[in-house]
Design brief:
Layout lengths: L7 H4 L3 H12 L10 H4 L1 E4 L5 E6 L5 H19 L4 E6 L2 H20 L4 E5 H11 L1 H14 L8 E5 L2 H5 L6 H8 L9 E5 L8 E5 L6 H14 L5 H9 L2 H5 L19 H8 L6 H15 L4 E5 H7 L5 H12 L8 E5 L2 H7 L5 H8 L1 E2 L1 H5 L17 E5 L10 E6 L7 H20 L5 H6 L73 H4 L26 H6 L5 H11 L3 H13 L5 H10 L6 H7 L3 H8 L3 H8 L10 H8 L3 H10 L4 H8 L7
Helix pairs in contact: 2-4, 5-20, 6-7, 6-16, 6-17, 7-16, 10-13, 11-14, 25-26, 25-27, 27-31
Length: 691
């Protein structure tokens, strides 16, 4: 193949030369490439010469192309062209539609920059927004964003913060923010002014990094301590509370009468424990306090708000409108898609902590008739006259009757509209990119300077209707809660890059979720990776049996979780209903270095929480096979991926299993080598498995 492929644009090496050279190399593999491809395929560089775009015959088998040809072709191509991408499209209109989707997506991401995000924890939306109210909520959010730009190992940050800076991250004006900063209330649980400002010097604030447990949850916990403090130790009570996390989280704002003194002084779980057990607190109790706080607040489970939304729309929307958009996005569940149903206005009033008439005004701003609602599509551009209607559309399901609450559905947009300021540039770039991609000519220098590279993320809002011949689109990650990687200074949030997943993302109610942000988009390049294997697909079958809890001694495993004997039987019965999900949580907890992996897995099973697809995919292999794969060296795995497995005849079946794993699953599998999962399996495996 041609050397130094990354500099081909300087040497004027044609795209066809690069493609034909690659094709010759691939003919030496078992792919059985059609001989006619030398004449029937064509290649050209995109406008920036960052992607080699190859057009293949329209009738090429889609499964073969996506699952067999493309993965191997990308490996060979990447060896010589480390900074470039290989993209396939089909001849005819289907290829043009596919090209339009990619062009729209790349231009959208160039403008929106969905990787620049502010993670706001779902706990904040569900349990603090109703307590604070919309305006103080956005001040708190802005304060946390401004304070934790740099990582801090301390539990709080002392920083000079001006209302001008805070206004950039909220829908409030500087004067409104200044007014809020001088008011007392539950905001003091998040920050405290320690030094007044003077002249051009901003006031200083202490801003706490850990999200405080909401007052209604703290009151429930305090009542539990009051009831049991005379009978049990602090550690025993905290252990019991860990088992009741779901019960605690189900306590909603307004269900308990809070003392008037609650809003005047910040109070933490540590304060409650110290009140009932004065004196020095042991390390074990301290660890349990931290774990309970995290299981309640789940600081890494967040909605990610793009910077673009703050900079372009916070001035267009008021506090309640912005809060409603993101509260509804935080409710996203896979089975409910992007529609949420309500009866009456009280749920919205409670969620936003607003007045009685505000919800109706908000809803009626974006209400449509049932006929209009069924035909509603989102305009890619922001329309000022619609305001809130650019993100939400409401359809009433019944007519107004006095004394009867109205039912209505709210449809929530998954992506951000392109602002008026960027509209002309958006349309111009799409036209230019389509033109340059179709002709294969080099794009103008302005485009090459402005573009940041091949689009890394994808959005549902840019999707157009495709015919079956087009490469399949991966689903949008709608407000990924999974797991926003807080790059602020919260000592408990692990910073990192946004990860892309080829499968669906969902809001999983899980613990110790220390993996990364998923923004509103998926990776285009990852969409070309073969889809997740279906275990029951006969084409993907293997002689290795997929087994579950029968491989291990469950009672012995639960012994590591310190469960009492009378608890074990109920837990075992529950686990045996969903053995794969239980193993998925065990795998996940080991990879994320959870302190109590068995106990956390049991808790998630008890609460019915689901986890990410890559862990479920590994769990379907069973305990033993997963343990075997996790013990294979990274070098051997790389050889298997390249098809260089002739020296591993005794592991042929294991190799076939590994090759059928998706890219995200392989990535997590490699992380398992650094855990004690294999040792755990050795400790609890059954010597003989019946059947």
């Amino acid at each position: 193949m041609i050397d130094n492929g990354q500099n081909n644009h300087n040497e004027k090496v044609s795209a066809d030369q690069v493609w034909l050279s690659l094709l010759e190399d691939l003919k030496q593999t078992p792919l059985e490439i059609p001989e006619t491809w030398t004449k029937e395929t064509k290649a050209h560089w995109d406008s920036e010469e960052l992607s080699l775009v190859v057009t293949v015959p329209h009738d090429t088998n889609e499964v073969w192309l996506d699952r067999r040809f493309l993965p191997l072709a990308k490996i060979y191509f990447g060896e010589e062209h480390t900074e470039k991408q290989l993209v396939l499209q089909r001849k005819g209109r289907a290829g043009m539609d596919d090209l339009l989707v990619r062009v729209q997506r790349s231009v959208y991401e160039e403008i929106i920059e969905p990787n620049k995000i502010v993670p706001v924890q779902i706990y904040m939306f569900h349990h603090w927004l109703p307590v604070l109210g919309a305006s103080p909520f956005w001040v708190v959010t802005a304060m946390r964003q401004v304070s934790f730009v740099s990582k801090s190992e301390e539990n709080r940050v002392l920083k000079s913060i001006s209302s001008r800076v805070l206004a950039k991250w909220s829908p409030l004006s500087r004067s409104q923010i200044s007014e809020r900063l001088n008011k007392k209330g539950f905001s003091s649980w998040f920050y405290k002014k320690v030094k007044e400002g003077y002249e051009d010097v901003a006031p200083e604030f202490n801003v706490w990094s850990q999200i405080p447990v909401a007052p209604h949850h703290l009151l429930w916990i305090e009542s539990f301590f009051k009831q049991h403090s005379g009978e049990e130790s602090a550690a025993a009570i905290l252990e019991s509370l860990l088992d009741r996390t779901g019960e605690i989280r189900r306590v909603k704002p307004g269900e308990l009468d809070l003392p008037s003194s609650c809003s005047k002084q910040r109070r933490t779980l540590l304060d409650v424990v110290a009140e009932y057990y004065p004196g020095n607190i042991s390390q074990a109790v301290s660890d349990l306090i931290i774990q309970l706080e995290h299981q309640i607040t789940r600081p890494n489970l967040a909605v990610t708000i793009p910077h673009y939304f703050f900079h372009k729309y916070m001035g267009e929307l008021n506090s309640n409108e912005a809060a409603l958009i993101w509260y509804l996005r935080s409710l996203y569940k896979e089975d409910d898609s992007n529609v949420v149903k309500f009866t009456g206005y009280m749920p919205i009033k409670t969620a936003l902590g607003c007045g009685n008439r505000t919800p109706q005004r908000l809803i009626e701003k974006c209400s449509l008739s049932q006929e209009e609602g069924s035909e509603r599509t989102w305009d890619p551009h922001y329309q000022p006259e619609k305001l809130l209607g650019n993100w939400l559309s409401v359809v009433y399901l019944n007519d107004y009757e006095k004394g009867l609450a109205r039912e209505y559905e709210i449809k929530i947009r998954a992506t951000e509209p392109v602002h008026e300021d960027d509209k002309r540039y958006y349309n111009r770039q799409i036209e230019r990119n389509m033109s340059s991609s179709q002709t294969g000519k080099e794009g103008d220098s302005e485009l090459a300077q402005n573009r940041t590279g091949v689009a890394q993320n994808r959005t549902e809002g840019d999707r157009v209707e495709q015919s079956p011949e087009i490469l399949p689109d991966s689903k949008v990650a709608q407000n990924r809660t999974g797991v926003a990687q807080n790059q602020q200074g919260d000592a408990h949030n692990k910073p990192g890059l946004a990860q892309n997943n080829s499968g669906d993302s969902r809001i999983s109610g899980h613990y110790n979720n220390s993996t990364t942000n998923k923004s509103l988009t998926d990776s285009f390049n990852d969409s070309l990776i073969p889809p997740l294997p279906i275990i029951n697909d006969p084409d993907l079958s293997t002689d290795i049996p997929v087994v579950g809890v029968g491989e291990i001694n469950l009672e012995k495993l639960l012994g590591f979780g310190s469960y009492k004997h009378n608890e074990k039987k109920k837990i075992i019965d529950l686990i045996e209903i969903e053995p794969e999900l239980f193993l998925a949580w065990i795998i996940r907890n080991h990879i994320t270095e959870a302190k109590f992996p068995v106990r956390l897995a049991v808790k998630n099973i008890q609460e019915g929480n689901e986890t990410e697809d890559q862990y479920l995919e590994l769990a379907k292999l069973g305990w033993g096979i997963t343990a075997q794969l996790s013990s294979v060296s990274e070098n051997d795995l790389s050889m298997w991926e390249l098809g260089l497995d002739d020296d591993y005849e005794d592991q042929e079946e294991l190799i076939q299993v590994y090759k059928k794993l998706s890219k995200p699953a392989r990535k997590e599998l490699k992380k398992m080598r650094e855990t004690n999962y294999s040792q755990l399996f050795e400790n609890v495996k059954t010597e003989k498995r019946e059947g």
